[in-house]
Amino acid sequence: MRRALQVALLAAAASSAPAFAGEPFQLVTIDEVERMLAARDVAIYDANPEEVFAKNHLPGARFVDSAFGKGSLPKDKATRLVFYCANPH
After folding, report:
1. Cα separations in angstroms, 29 against 8, 14, 51, 84
2. Contact status, residue 10 vs residue 23, Cβ threshold 8 Å
3. Do 9 and 27 touch, CB atoms closer than 8 A?
4. Are 25 and 19 in contact (CB under 8 A)?
5. pTM to 2 decimals?
6. pLDDT by residue (tens digit) across 61-86?
7. How many distinct structural domains can be found in the chain?
8. pLDDT tens-digit profile of 2-50?
9. Helices (H) and strands (E) in the chain, counts
10. Which domain holds residue 12?
11. CB–CB of 51/86 below 8 Å?
């Protein structure tokens, strides 16, 4: 699983990583995401191309496709969101 976690990770969650100026998002470490995977208050989203998602994605991750929108997010606003892809830029 370690290899699958070699991705850029952004999370709207409290962590020790500094937030980007003016943004509610922050980078989190691979170890932090590993701890979040089983948490009930976390939703994981994979923004890689579909073939990458199909071949290898984090357990429980939801695919972010062109139809992704407001209805794709959890109704509970307290849910921490983790979005990841293979390119941090």
Report:
1. 9, 12, 25, 11
2. no
3. yes
4. yes
5. 0.70
6. 999 988 888 788 999 989 999 999 88
7. 1
8. 444 444 444 443 344 455 566 777 888 888 998 998 899 999 999 999 9
9. 2, 5
10. 3-85
11. no
